[in-house]
Design goal:
Distance between the termini: 58 Å
Helix content: 25-40%
Strand order of the largest sheet: 1-3-2
Radius of gyration: 19 Å
Number of helices: 3
Strand content: 5-15%
Shape: elongated
Order of helices and strands: EHHEEH
Length: 72
């Protein structure tokens, strides 16, 4: 987290990821995502969400050319 990073509420984090609030709360409860505790309030840095998405992004498999069906 850098100093200029915006801290998001749980609702804002859910909206940014396109998920429900329950999913974000479960990530927090299971400590699968970094968060900031400000009194009773929980905030998640925007960069943490970006890193979470990047870590779980699956790259596509390159299609191999099949030798079947090729004219001789």
């Amino acid at each position: 987290m850098n100093n200029s990073d915006r801290l998001l509420t749980v609702d804002e984090a859910a909206e940014r990821l396109g998920t429900g609030v329950r999913f974000i709360r479960r990530l927090i409860q299971e400590r699968r995502i970094r968060y900031v505790k400000l009194g009773k309030h929980v905030r998640i840095a925007d960069s943490v969400l970006t890193a979470y998405v990047e870590a779980r992004t699956v790259e596509p498999v390159r299609a191999r050319r099949s030798s079947f069906g090729m004219a001789a």
